[in-house]
Amino acid sequence: MKHCAGQIKYLIAIKELSDKDDYVRCVSISRHLGVSRPSVSKMLRCMANSGLVYEDFCNSVVLTPEGVETVNQIFSSFNEVYMFFHNFLKLPAEEAHSQAILFITDFPNDTCERLKHLVRRTIHKK
Questions:
Q1: Burial of 3 (0-12, 13-18, 19+ CB in 10 A)
Q2: Which of 100, 101, 110, 120 is deepest in the core (most CB within 10 A)?
Q3: The model's pTM
Q4: Which domains, and CATH codes, for the chain?
Q5: pLDDT at 43 exceeding the cut of 90
Q6: Which residues pair with 63 in a beta bridge?
Q7: What percent of the residues of the chain are helix, what percent strand, and what percent coil, each to the nearest 5?
Q8: In the chain, what is the straight-line distance between the N-terminal and C-terminal CA atoms, in Å?
């Protein structure tokens, strides 16, 4: 699984928005990420071409089975990295959230895996 940082950010946004509401609209993604609606449309077109979201994303953005699997993989890293920033480094929730997204999108996957391993090991010791 190798997706660009932008796709990962959008997938995280879609997952977080769909957890709050049944319908994820382009305008909701735009507000959530602080980007323009044309930027959202352009990225969703790219993601549809990659098989991550269904083609008809004008009314509601829906992840394909491949998109759901990708989001689940991303969140396995995201949740543990977020826990590290929030619980171990004591960053406020919002800052820990943005730092976790930056970490999983900008750092190599093996570095994320090493941090996840460290967090798991530390949790099991408690």
A1: middle
A2: 100
A3: 0.83
A4: 5-64 (1.10.10.10), 70-125 (no CATH)
A5: yes
A6: 53
A7: 75, 0, 25
A8: 32
